[in-house]
Amino acid sequence: MSLDELYAKLLVKTPAKMALVVMDGLGDIATKANNYLTPLEAANTPNLDKLTQDAAQGRMIPVAPGITPGSGPGHLALFGYDPIEFQVGRGVIEALGLGLELKAGDVAARANFCTMNDKGIVTDRRAGRIETEVCEELCALLSKKIKKIGDTQVIIKAGKGHRFVVIFRGKGLEGPLTDADPNREGAKIPTVQPVDPSSAGQKKAAKLIGEFYKEALPLISKRKPANGFLLRGIAHQPQIPTFEERYQLKPACLAVYPMYKGLAQLVGMTKVEGPQTIAEQFERYLAEYNNYDFFFIHYKYTDMYGEDGNFEAKKKAIEEFDAALPILLKKRPDVLAITGDHSTPCAVKGHSWHPQPVLLTSEISGSDKLDRFTETGANLGSLGIFEAKYLMRLMQANARMFDKFGA
Amino acid sequence: MSLDELYAKLLVKTPAKMALVVMDGLGDIATKANNYLTPLEAANTPNLDKLTQDAAQGRMIPVAPGITPGSGPGHLALFGYDPIEFQVGRGVIEALGLGLELKAGDVAARANFCTMNDKGIVTDRRAGRIETEVCEELCALLSKKIKKIGDTQVIIKAGKGHRFVVIFRGKGLEGPLTDADPNREGAKIPTVQPVDPSSAGQKKAAKLIGEFYKEALPLISKRKPANGFLLRGIAHQPQIPTFEERYQLKPACLAVYPMYKGLAQLVGMTKVEGPQTIAEQFERYLAEYNNYDFFFIHYKYTDMYGEDGNFEAKKKAIEEFDAALPILLKKRPDVLAITGDHSTPCAVKGHSWHPQPVLLTSEISGSDKLDRFTETGANLGSLGIFEAKYLMRLMQANARMFDKFGA
Questions:
Q1: How do residues B55-66 score in pLDDT, each as one tens digit?
Q2: Which 8-state DSSP code applies to residue B389?
């Protein structure tokens, strides 16, 4: 019996309301440059501090020791899915990030416009980093001319600069496929191939993409510098058991950025649209309190400023979050977890593997008697250092959603 | 190579004496109602405190994050068996709890007397909660009339109120079987079926139980209100490698309550009978010191008062335990672990998933330099937060029972 099967077997429905509040990239590291304080430690956070009195704390390993997750694995783990078992292809993540609605079975690819010479050799994989407007114009052209290939719908959406996304929506398609990208200049664009040659769905998708190239390349062949394109990370939307069937919880997503809405949608959460600030997100939580059992609330700015290496701005983003927190607490959920999907340390200027701090509070979370919610404090908490995929299980336990195992 | 195989390969016999002292349901949580102290923190425990000076501490996840164990999985983990791999059916646990000696291959069922109408419809699944004396009389009647079915021995033992246990001891029997219980009133008693229809042993057991019903029901059909019975959790005693073959340790069980003696017996421990108090148990440990290598000493009252939600009584039970501890220490075992099989927080009034604290002391345990043995202190210990099934391995390591792995 697998652990997931055991959890499923012990599951009981309760009327508990739960909120998972994600401060993206929250975790950080203490370095000399900032007097050995993390942004969370340096920030003034009276409302988080107050929560700690009745909370357990710990730190979470996003995937495995030393593994730095992208937003996809980071969030899948928070949603309680093993991020190694449930891998989402880059094409799918990219499409979600552009706000495209994917359906089960859709095959998605990240795409770049590129420059080729008259022998078909790629001379610039980014087509001189064309402006977004040029990319949008080229995508509009391709979209207009190629709506379908056979019975398969083709959806093309421009991203930033030379980047775009192509989605193939048809019957019996599967990924992953090899890249239509030499991954270096000076070579031709390779033909995509099934990764598993015995998969009929992959073979069909590979053939389709070959035909797509045949139709699309002539349409832009006279353009300069973007007279070709590369496809990478070609994957289909994986079959993931929905959040609702897995946990017997009706989930809502309160996120502002498309990527996080997309990841929530991937597990079947309902996207509650509208709010643009964390205060508005919390207000909307209050308004929707009776309509859902589980609320995923996503706050982007801690990650954004961590990526910039901007310590002061990350600290300020935490303080703004903290100032809005009392709105959420007007109707305190029975189980509340506040954490990040990973760390984005200012000193790293990017995502990292450092375990993110987590705070978990419920009537029966117990108190770790810590004065504040910080990385250093969380090291001392009763939750210990654990894999992020177990947070959902601890939230369920705190909601008394598991029968006793064995007599 | 599995981890168990590696442990087995590295095993060496040493003359070390080891004691695993289980304060049942020891772990608790700090809540406002008790000034944010756990019973262990509030208790006056000079002898435990003194032990900490030369001890390592940590906390143990009984089964997996968020999983609340019954006594069976809780103790199997403490005995070093993966509680998900080695699952013990409820019928077996119930039989053990009534002090029945099970043999390998025995099929056991929890049973309830019930009331049926003249159409065989169950109208009360608990037969109006008959008195224990009535239950005992009915069980005596059934026992007298049905000693064997074919070549299979039938053993019937009354429990409390309407509850009893039936054991089938014969050749080639296997569980699990489906329940002979509609699990609601207003329906007939379903015929038991093999859970795995391809299992000959399950088929044989199911047929046998069908015959048992045919013989037993007429014997009580005129009784009121208990004119029928239900069987649930029908399972056979699993094949578990004995403690002695697994660890090369001769183990003794010093427990007062039948359930814990039964669990110890399940892994082949010798039950040392007689002592009724923890002081007597420790005295008996001294007397038996030379006769065994490993002592499992079980103390029930921390769990009992936790189940009642009685903080003061749980605290007092800890203090009584502490007061008796010097008896054990007259012949200090080479390796001593003191812990719970799970938490039973007063605020939960039942078992829970919260990791229980553990104290481990030996000449080479090292000291965590903690002043006391408490949940909050144990969070800071060198053992960290780990799965309870590894405690035995740590005890063996402290007894120098493992060769170096690799050169």
A1: 999 999 999 999
A2: G
Is residue B357 less than 8 Å (CB to CB) from chain A? no
Listed in order, the ranges of chain B carrying CATH 3.30.70 are 92-236
ipTM of the complex: 0.89
Domain with CATH 3.40.720.10 in chain B: 3-87+239-398
In sequence order, what are the beta bridge partners of A165? A110, A157
Q: Is the pLDDT of residue A361 over 90?
A: yes
Neighboring chain B residues of A365 at a CB cutoff of 8 Å:
29
DSSP string for B281-318: HHHHHHHHTTT-SEEEEEE-HHHHHHHHT-HHHHHHHH
Q: Give A373→chain B minimum CA distance, Å.
A: 16
Query: Are B68 and A397 a contacting pair at CB < 8 A?
Result: yes
CB–CB contact B93 A407 (8 Å) = yes
Instruction: Report how far Cα B281 is from the mean position of its chain's Cα atoms.
Output: 18
Q: Which one of 3.30.300, 1.25.40, 3.30.70, 1.20.58 gives the CATH number of domain B92-236?
A: 3.30.70
In chain A, which among 29-88 make CB contacts under 8 A with chain B? 53-54
List, by residue range, all CATH 3.40.720.10 domains of chain A.
Answer: 3-87+241-398
Identify the band that residue B94 occupies on the pLDDT scale cut at 50, 70 and 90: confident
Distance separating alpha carbons of residues A64 and A353, to the nearest angstrom: 8
- Give me the percent of chain B exceeding a pLDDT of 90: 92
Q: Which residue on chain B is closest to A396 by alpha carbon?
A: B66
Model pLDDT for residues B251-291, shown as the tens digit of each residue: 999 999 988 999 999 999 999 999 999 999 999 999 999 99
How far B28 CA lies from chain A's nearest CA (Å)? 8
> Tens of pLDDT along B214-260?
999 999 999 999 999 999 999 998 889 999 999 999 999 999 998 89
**Could you tell me whether strands B356-362 and B228-236 are parallel, antiparallel, or unpaired per DSSP bridges?**
unpaired
DSSP B192-236: P-BSSTT-HHHHHHHHHHHHHHHHHHHHHTT-SS--EEEEEEEEE
Span B126-149, mean pLDDT? 96
CB < 8 Å to B237, chain A: none
Identify the pLDDT of residue B98.
86
In chain A, the residue whose alpha carbon lies closest to the alpha carbon of B90 is A407
B3-87+239-398, which class in CATH? alpha beta
Minimal CA separation from B71 to chain A, in Å: 6
Mutate to test the interface with B, among A50, A364, A367, A405 (most CBs of B within 10 A): A405
Q: Are B233 and B66 in contact (CB under 8 A)?
A: no
Q: How confident is the model at residue A258 (pLDDT cuts 50, 70, 90)?
A: confident
Task: Identify the CATH assignment for A3-87+241-398 out of 3.40.720.10, 2.40.30.20, 3.10.20.740, 1.20.120.80.
Answer: 3.40.720.10
From the list A7, A364, A381, the residue facing B348 with the nearest CB is A364
Task: Tell me whether strands B122-124 and B152-158 are parallel, antiparallel or unpaired.
Answer: unpaired
